[in-house]
Amino acid sequence: MRSGLPRVAAATAPATPPPPLPGLDPAWSRIVTVPAAVDPGGTARPERSWHLLDTADSLAALGVEPVGTLLCVHGNPTWSYLWRSVLRTSLDVAAAGGPAWRVVAVDQLGMGFSERTGVQHGLADRVRDLGALTDELELSGPVVTLGHDWGGVVSLGWAVDHPDLVVAVTTCNTAVHQPDDAPIPAPLRLALRPELLGRATVLTPAFLETTLAIAHPRLDRATADAYRAPYRGAARRGGVGGFVADIPVDGDHPSAPELDRIAAGVAALEVPALVMWGPRDPVFLERYLDDLAERLPHADVHRFEGAGHLLPDDADVAGTVVEWLGDHLPDGRVPAGAEPSLLARTHDDADVRRPLWAALDELRDSDEAALVEMAAAGGPRTVSWRLLARRVDEVAAGLVDLGVRAGDRVSLLVTPGADLTAVLYASVRIGAVVVVADAGLGLRGLTRAVRGARPDWIIGALPGLGAARALGWPGRRIATVSLPGPARRALRVEHTLVEVARRGAQRLARGTALPGAPSSDAPAAVLFTSGSTGPAKGVVYTHGQLGAVRDTLAAQYDIGVGTGLVAGFAPFALLGPALGARSVAPDMDVTAPRTLTARAVADSVTAADATVVFLSPAAVANVVATAGALTAADRAALGRVRLFLSAGAPVSAELLTAATELMPNASAHTPYGMTEGLLMTDVDLDGVRAAAADAPDEDGICVGRPATGVRVRIAPLDDSGEPTGALTEDPGVTGEIIVAAPHVRERYDRLWRQNRVSRLGVADPRGHRTGDVGHLDDAGRLWVEGRLQHVLTTADGVVTPVGPEQRIERVPGVGRAGLAGIGPRGTQQAVAVVETTGGRRTRRPTLADPDLARAVRAAAGIPVAAVLTVPELPTDIRHNSKVDRARLSRWAASVLSGGRMVRP
Question: What is the pTM of this model?
Fold first, then answer.
């Protein structure tokens, strides 16, 4: 076997127990000797001694019988210590009366505290050796494997060889196949260089130290020292170098046939599977996750955003595995009749009635306007239904001609307009899955979203293509604009949209039909959340669910053929053609809704003869602020608007009133929804006023009654601020808001744990836990009181933030307010952070003056520990509207403990 490893004296040693180490119970440690034997193939196997961690005795001490065994295999250069949290968590669950799983975590030969054999072990050897150990342990089923790094490959190889024992497989960052057209990752290429291999892995601890250094967050010293413990001295590190040398870099490597055998076997596994991933891993890149997901299409996948290679230390792998086992194998076996995936669901027959592009087909002979582009050079540009339908067909046919297939992911990095509309409808028409992550996420958020979605194709304008090239986003590239040859090569652009449409036109002229329509339960789109409460999540919608969104909007607001729609929020601009509405996106910076002006809205209304206007709250605020620039003609145009909508964040009655003064004949509505369900409830301005008059003491913002086909229930909060108990529609009960509707999303993309949490305790397969808190009143209206993660748990009880914020905002001299919680849960202190106006306006953060502080405390209705003033509250990126309370809490805790008084 090729190695390039140095000969090191004293390279053999028997297995030994580890010294006392943090997080490691000595009762788990075992030395097991596997006697010499002859394999069935005639190969002599010498006696070997293994060190492993085993919870069998601990379970016996608890008096519980395990339902099965979780067999954990580490990679290189870690050891069984990697799985300490899995052992501890499984015992905690068993002690609490939950399913008891025995955990066996091995140290592979030459690694950890197992025997130093003095020989190199190839991949096939390691799989056979592990089998010999489990035979000696008399391990019987049911068994679930859990692996990491190259331990993932070994554990999957063992699973392939023991189908009579294995009931499920789980794994962290690993790979079972190295594609021929891609090099192995750069860190491994460097480590495998003959002049570096021995020096970096054996003679020095460089390979080990590099691995420990890429933990996210950084390992504390005691934990890092625990990982170092079995590898002190070159004589103890031979296995580290041998493991690296055994990486099959090409088909000629001695271990390549075994890797191919395991890869084929994995693809044949039909047991439940869970794949967990740290996307910041520089070695196991996401192409390896794609490969595993393709081989195990029924697998549940969870990406821990922000985590990297040392995933069990970086993230809650232990909790995820225990939850997954509890859902899939509550008694050690898959329940009779259960589906392979927790997310399996049924769909209503109504989902298939009309495809998303039906209106395009119905209006394809119309020369009426379908789209109006306000930012086009030379003034507004109108695109007819005839032209749009033809363009969609041509692009769809051209994409098929290029090799885009049903299920391929197509990332759209295009600003709202005709190009975006055409490629979106063309993609869904042929069954491709569009990935829509708007620029409002910011460059970092957009990078995280696109990489996480793993698109096969990117269709983009110049800014998006430039970012894709500079930041290494995956996907073959199609440009929406013509580019000179050097620029095309630099950006790795293979085709332009004009070329795609031309190919499509030629294909259609030959009589080649487009593919049949996708089924209603096929995925159609991945839409990303705003990222206002954590990393943006990809939300998967099926064709049936997007059709249900369209139908709900049409029924709720009477939007259809002939309606002119001004969409100041990009997702609704894309739904215009599905509704048959004439749509226009106003001239604005889509990454900053606050840039929208009253004149821009009026110009859009005029250009599209619009009667419906949809704007985000931040956009509305600036439209109202810039109303002084309106001309008489502008005001006349706005007077023709019959319906005004604003959503994405809470909207005050004062702001709605100000907007209706500009659109006096419009009914002002503020629907409640989220990316996971775009329309859940609705209320108009009169309804908001009536709710305030009927219930002046209600906490929160009234968002009205459920929309067509929507059911709203509440999961009550307990004293710790957690949603518990049976769901209720009783009035006056504050808790997490639970919605159910045909147009609720299918799932989160590669986020099994979020999927689980979002449906936990919700029997309806169309249900969703929103993460918002609120209550229903006696009239069936929903009041939103904030986000679940922003609920304060004080010594006086649970406090939801919106009510106190609203009362504080009524204090003279206060603009917006944010309620921050500091301190440990159960004894948190409330801190009010306010923007000041008029003569009180401040240019820098500071403690509020005594008079203002007294007024704020008197208005809040709850004990307030401190009052801080800021020039501007931090908000989310996409809407510029939602106060970032988590950021406020971190900032308030810092400044009140003596930190610098800088802007939050």
Answer: 0.89
